[in-house]
């Protein structure tokens, strides 16, 4: 898909020009400043539950073992020490957000009947590979994930009081866009499609709010042009600027939507987790501040297929690995061609902390 994708993105110059003319570029970088004053006095409460909707950036084990690499070695090598359904060597964004609000990482929806004592921390409905629309993965899209949540409320697993003291995390990391490319093989209608995606995301956010969740944190799109599947072409040396311009367009629309939602609501609030700026901050970091990680080459993944067709975790018919793993995952930002390592997520979490204070 990498080469195919690059060819397609090279034909975006017209859209790029359009984006530049409308002054979109770079605007996603300052999303949290705009809303700072709206959040400070809204709803100072101690959340006791976390509900999660989205994709592999938030999934902690919903994907079926038969289809997901997240259940194959070497995933989970850092935490919990074996593959457990997270698309990383260890913890992901959900785990860090749970830690921040002071609850245990919520149980994946698929395992809800096996750990009833964990229901009190909320629930994770995110499935790797999904989007707001149907993607190439057969797993439940975000609408269906919210249906699951609604059913649990109907069944009184969660009461209105539970929801009053809860936070939702909603991640959208680009699966709708990779599906669009795979299905259409053309850049035609790209800007319209971005608008459709953000519109559907808005419907989903309103629905989660309508079910009674008071605080909703939604991720802005990360710099897709900096994912190893895109930087592979330059031997992991540089990001694809055209892809990142399109990401900025998505993030600008999301910012406008969130501003509007916050203006319309009195006791609820929406917060953007600006993954774009957080990733970029980490990439540029030279390790000046204590606790900061400095990654030698942040664009190069730890676990990499031996050829472009092989992915992390794949083996041949004799069980021989078709991938290599770096010596120290803690020294790399990306785990595979799309997902950060645990250390990568920790760095992003630190970069997001000022925003999270508003939860």
From TrEMBL:
What are the protein's UniProt keywords?
Hydrolase, Lipid degradation, Lipid metabolism, Signal
The record ties this protein, via InterPro entries, to:
GDSL, SGNH_hydro_sf, SGNH_plant_lipase-like
Protein name according to UniProt: GDSL esterase/lipase At5g03610-like
Family membership: Belongs to the 'GDSL' lipolytic enzyme family.
Q: Which residues form the signal peptide?
A: 1-26
State if Lipid metabolism is listed as a keyword: yes
| Organism expressing this protein natively | Hevea brasiliensis
Gene3D superfamilies of this UniProt entry? SGNH hydrolase
Q: Does the keyword Signal apply?
A: yes
């Amino acid at each position: 898909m990498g080469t195919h994708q690059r060819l397609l993105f090279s034909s975006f110059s017209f859209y790029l020009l359009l984006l530049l003319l409308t002054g979109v570029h770079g605007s996603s970088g300052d999303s949290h400043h705009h809303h700072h004053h709206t959040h400070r006095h809204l709803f100072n409460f101690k959340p006791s539950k976390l509900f999660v909707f989205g994709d592999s950036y938030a999934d902690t084990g919903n994907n079926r073992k038969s289809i997901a690499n997240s259940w194959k070695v070497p995933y989970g090598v850092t935490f919990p020490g074996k593959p457990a359904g997270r698309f990383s060597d260890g913890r992901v964004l959900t785990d860090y957000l749970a830690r921040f609000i002071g609850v245990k990482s919520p149980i994946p929806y698929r395992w809800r009947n096996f750990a009833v004592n964990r229901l009190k921390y909320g629930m994770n409905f995110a499935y790797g590979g999904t989007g707001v629309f149907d993607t190439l993965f057969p797993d439940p899209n975000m609408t269906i994930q919210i249906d699951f949540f609604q059913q649990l409320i109907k069944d009184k697993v969660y009461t209105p009081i539970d929801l009053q003291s809860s936070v939702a995390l909603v991640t959208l990391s680009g699966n709708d866009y990779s599906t669009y490319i795979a299905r259409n093989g053309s850049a035609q209608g790209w800007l319209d499609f971005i608008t459709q995606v953000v519109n559907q995301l808005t419907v989903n956010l309103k629905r989660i709010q309508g079910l009674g969740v008071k605080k909703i944190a939604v991720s802005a799109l990360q710099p897709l042009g900096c994912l190893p599947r895109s930087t592979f072409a330059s031997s992991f040396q540089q990001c694809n600027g055209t892809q990142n311009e399109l990401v900025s367009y998505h993030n600008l629309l999301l910012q406008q939507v969130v501003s509007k939602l916050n203006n319309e609501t009195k006791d609820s609030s929406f917060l953007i987790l600006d993954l774009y700026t957080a990733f970029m901050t980490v990439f540029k970091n030279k390790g000046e501040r204590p606790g900061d990680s400095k990654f030698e080459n942040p664009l190069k993944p730890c676990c990499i297929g031996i050829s472009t067709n092989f992915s992390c975790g794949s083996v041949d018919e004799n069980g021989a690995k078709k991938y290599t793993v770096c010596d120290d995952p803690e020294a790399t930002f990306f785990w595979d061609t799309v997902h950060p390592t645990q250390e990568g997520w920790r760095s992003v979490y630190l970069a997001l902390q000022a925003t999270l204070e508003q939860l």
